[in-house]
Amino acid sequence: MSDSSTNNVVHATVPDPRRWFALVVIAIAQLMVVLDASIVNIALPHASLPRALGGLAIAPKNYQWAITAYTLTFGGFLLLGGRVGDYLGRKKAFLIGLSGFAVASLIGGLSVDQQMLFGARALQGVFGALLAPAALSLISLTFTDSKERAPAFGVYGALSGVGAAIGLIAGGLLTQYLSWRWCLFVNTPMAIIALLLAIPNVHESKVEGHPHYDVPGALSATLGMVSIVFGVSQASSDGWGSFHAWPFIALGVVLLIGFFQIEAKARSPLLPLRLLTDRVRAGSYLSQTLVGLGLFGMFLFMTFYFQDVHDYSAVKSGLLYLPFSIGIIVAAGGASQILPKIGPRYIATIGSLMGAGGLFLLSLLAPHSSYLTRVMPAMIIASLGLGATFVAVASTALFNVRPDDSGAASAVLNTAQQIGGSFGTAIQNTIYVTSATAFIANATHAGLSKSSLAVIRATGAVHGYDLAFRFGALMLLLSAVVFYVCVNIDRHHLGQHDETVVVL
Predict the structure, then answer these.
(1) Which of 229, 277, 318, 354 shows the smallest number of beta carbons within 10 Å?
(2) How far apart are CA 220 and CA 119, in angstroms?
(3) For residue 123, which of 141, 106, 145 has the smallest C-alpha distance?
């Protein structure tokens, strides 16, 4: 049965002559959104300094909220943002998202206490949730030729993977040579540049019809995820047997179950359940979630490893991620070239397996492991695999979607990555804290010298990182299995996108 909303749209038959300029604009916005999930990692120790030293006196137990306040609101409101873009217009949503992101970043950089910082980060997430699905929809609807779609999605996929690493490099440079506040300020000029370029080069597209926004669905999804992450975070400090952890986890599960019930009955759901009934798309979304679960914690713990164990500076710690960034770019470029020839299935499967192998090599780290012989090779293997995976996943996430579901399908892909990253970081942090604490407690004896205690603590910390990396490797291994089993299409099917839009 056809949806009545599709009767009011027309085909875009002529390629947009400004489509490659539009891709540049979208790439800037996508980079800004993705790197913001990691750019504050290296800045956090400086932001936590007393106010007299230029910081906000952030308590160590609250560090993660500078990150998760962004990723949770971003992931929680992505579905609503995608639906708003469908009806309001993807260009309008893109421009509003850029403007709001610039303002929220400015507020964050001017923060006078940790509450103001966390609030600004959450506001960044809200506007990012409006911006990101509009960006992916604009790519999908602008590049209709299968030969042009591959390089366009290659750019998008590369930025999805490399953005976190670029954020760490930029965070180190900005923190050391300017101030930790510039890790937030830097978004404002980027957003302004993208805004000015978007106005003449990006065309409007939207679904006609009376809009219905599923606010109860957005609230139940966001609050449910916040509750689960908060519960997991409590478990890392109080233990899994603590009463403080499980009520929040249980409440989050109830809210997420309620979310799916709301979606099943909603007139215009944020997450049309029909998106998940297609095997190819469901496999792409689940694979992206598993990649997020496995990957995002790696950036956090490798930063700890560089700065706390090896005592590297913020700049050096950031620059040590450069091989990972280069590997993502090289692999994404190569994958976009061979994607039309061999299809996405084997690219993502092999790529996820390589990512798992790289994280497993990182799980063998010791306090004095060599960067050149142990860390860098593992990073290169992981980055080459993940760069290819991101391209293949992005190319299949909107496979055969209805035109009125384009924004929602785009939002689901972004949501999968952000929610996977939020949950993965919380789970891996719990693994790290509990295993490192247990190791140090078992190894510490009365009468040890300060130098011996320092060695035990460093060894215990690395032991915790290693176990967290093994969890990440397992998630990427599962991602490979899911993609291979579910995304059973070949290269001939990639062009089968019957997308009809209003082009203004």
Answers:
(1) 277
(2) 19
(3) 106
pLDDT tens, 412-426?
Answer: 777 788 778 878 887
| Tokens linked to 483 | 């993609």
- Torsion on CA atoms 226, 75, 290, 42, rounded to nearest 10: -80
Task: Measure the CA–CA gap between 298 and 304, rounded to whole angstroms.
Answer: 10
Sign of the CA dihedral running 337, 343, 349, 350: negative
Q: Give 16's DSSP letter.
A: P
Q: Classify residue 173 by burial, with Cβ atoms within 10 Å: 0-12, 13-18, 19+.
A: middle
Please tell me the predicted confidence (pLDDT) of residue 103: 95
Any alpha helices (H) in 376-495, and if so which ranges? 376-396, 406-443, 450-486
Cα 219 to Cα 70: distance, rounded to the nearest angstrom: 15
pLDDT of residue 234: 72
**Backbone dihedral angles phi then psi of residue 338, each to the nearest 5 degrees:** -95, -10
Report the C-alpha gap between 107 and 389 in whole angstroms.
35
The amino acid present at 414, given as its one-letter code, is N
Type of residue at 405: D
Partnered with residue 205 across adjacent β-strands are 503
Give the residues across from 502 on adjacent strands: 206
In the chain, what is the straight-line distance between the N-terminal and C-terminal CA atoms, in Å?
28
Whole-prediction pTM? 0.74
pLDDT grade for 375, boundaries at 50, 70 and 90? very high
Higher pLDDT, 453 or 328: 328
Which residues neighbour 241 within 8 Å (Cβ) at sequence distance 6 or greater?
none
Model confidence at 499, in pLDDT bands (50, 70, 90)?
very low
Say if residues 365 and 465 touch (Cβ distance below 8 Å).
yes
pLDDT greater than 60 at residue 493: no
